[in-house]
Amino acid sequence: MAFELASDRGRLTTNSQIVNLTVKLWNRRYPQQLIDIDAALKNTKSPTIFVLKDVAPKNITLINWSQICKTAQLNNHYVLVSTDVSFSCWNLGSEARKVFPEMKIEDIYTDQFLLKQLNEQLNENLSKELLKHSRLNRMSIESIAQQLKTTNNIFRFIQLFRKEVEKSSEENQLIENNKKAESDQIKIQELIEISKNDEQFIRKLYYKVLNPREQLLALGLSFFNGCFEDQLFAALERVVEEVWQRRDPDLQAIDYCDLDQLQNDYFQLDRDDLYETNLRNFKVVRTKEYKIDIRSIKLISLDNRQMLLQVAWESHRRQIISGLDVLVKLVEESVQENYYDRAKWELYGNSTRREKLRRAISKTLSDIGLVSTSAFSSVEGCLLRLAMNEDMQVRNVAASAIAGWYSRDDRHAPKLFRIVQKFYDITLDKERQAENNENNYPRVTKESDAPNNRKGETEKKQKPPEKWMGISAWIKRSIFDFFKITKESEETEEKEYYIKSEELEPQDYIGATVAVAVGDAIWNSDDGNDTLLEEFDRWLEELSESKLRLVHLFFGYHTLFWALPLRFKELRIREMLKKITQRHGDLLFEKLPFSLNHAIARSLAHAYAWPENRNQVKTMLDEWYKEVGNRPSFINKRKISEADALLKTVALTYGLIQYDEAQGMLTPETAFQRLIAIIKQEEHPAVREAVVFASCNLTGRYFDKVASHLQDLVANLDDKECDKIVQTLTEMHLEQRASLKQGDREIKVNGRYYQIWNNLTQRPRTPVEIAMDGWAKADRKPAAQEIAIQALVSFVKALEEQIYVQ
Fold it and tell me: Which residues, in sequence order, are CB contacts of 133 under 8 Å at separation 6+?
């Protein structure tokens, strides 16, 4: 479609820039990879067609399609996006419908195309047979193609027709004259109806066409849909060897030759648009991206998978149930460190494989849970086992499976609420026990107050989830250097609020899983069902009242992040947000840089990305700021009060919002002015630290717009706060320095490649160097002048001295 569009534009326009359209395909490394499409459009100068295949809402960092459309039009770009997520689940607003056409597969193909597909799929013998029987049925080949409507139905029809012809041929051999009566003709219309009906086709395929061995293979394909072909067979071998052969010792291993009967009927082999690369820096080699050449096995229709599981449950219930335990084991093994062993390479060899396997199993568990009440009960135990795992990648499998019940159809919402309620009740047992035995708890020391898993490692030391790779890296990079660890002498109400526990327990992990599942379900919710949305709002309030730190960690950084953009318009949610902001001003864990204030600020910034929320977010920030302005002048610097927590969150939010050019809304300049007003009157270290963090964030992203305000801000900072501004300017310089081209040679310093000029006077200066030179000459602003001198010295120490040493 993209190349056809490029060709079409070339024929219809005389604009030389638009004629030379190039096509860029999104190189996906893993399913949950984020892409900033607005930034990509702005940074690409020549007219381009951007192609994003199989995109989900969580792949897009900013879902403001009006802004994306505007950017595309200004730069003569085109954006082609495909998705299997419904329009309502994207939560784009009615104005986005014009760029989100609802395409029905029946309306895609022309009659001529369908007829061509039908003729191409028929061999010479089948073509003669179809012509003969169509005449007997008083039908034309053209009418058969029209009624089938889709290429998928054509594939089905041909396979069913071939089976009927083979059956007819066998019967004819028993007839002396080799003649068949007209009454025994193949019923074409009946085959057409079966081909168009998922349940009828799957039932006929499963019980009339497939032999017992092929039936198990169909189940295996359903279990691991979307995996690489070698990965699927490796996983299926585990199921066969560990459970199915125990029930049937004569069952032989399954191989590619067994796929013939199911190919085109039930699945197809496709190459993914996935790319792999080593995310870690090598010492010398510059790592590259490589397209993954291995094919993936994908079902032709996910509805077919759901239907086959439902049909197979009637006769292969025990095989399905026994296979569930192996699926859980595969998920648990996917996070172990020995994945590079030869025996496990096909299953877990790289992050892409591990993520594919976990996603496939999550969807399988979700689909099996929808088959029947008894199937739901069988899946429930598997999900609980995953939910209490120490590794969040394993827990995400359970959370995605649970949320999937609602995203498929809101009629399945009772299943979601039922299992969430049952699981969270286990979490609340810990709170109940703590309330009943409060005096029996040992005194928690500073060392034991940090969350530890059973291996004695903190949650921070766990391997970051591949699903959350962008978020985790962003949190650690942005916040760790800015938030101070609470001193031993500080007073904190967080210790009194949260349950004292020396280590994390299964109840903590289960509660965290519930928080993730609720957030994912809300993100996939439909605005039209008010009853269900009210139920989700009550769950947000329930989670906000948790007394377990890990639950609040995932509630803040996951649940609120995905829920707030969609539910911010509700007054009860905004009131809840203010309540928890005031109550929790400190770090969630003393030795980890996470706080609910920062999580809420991220969520507010995410909500601001939706145009319909902007006025309310702006108003709420103004209200919180004005409310804090009336607080008493005395400030206890060793305690974060409710007012301090509100002001801290306001500052953080200003620093995290992604600003654009919408009129009447917040801008980087107005945000910086508010930060200056706060820093001028604030003495509390937590609030000042939040202002510095926000200022550094804005400086890094919008330096050209806020440079003059930054000069005013630094006049109100102490030496340590100024050091952080210098660090930010230095990092900006290094990024800009790395982008310089056409040097005499290249050198690598601290993981970055830089161009080097033999004649130093020939090196182009970076924009921030030029700005600092100007500041250094501004005698009327001595604070800015001092910052500029420190920054220029820091630039030299960070890179030029390193280059000289090498």
Answer: 185, 186, 188
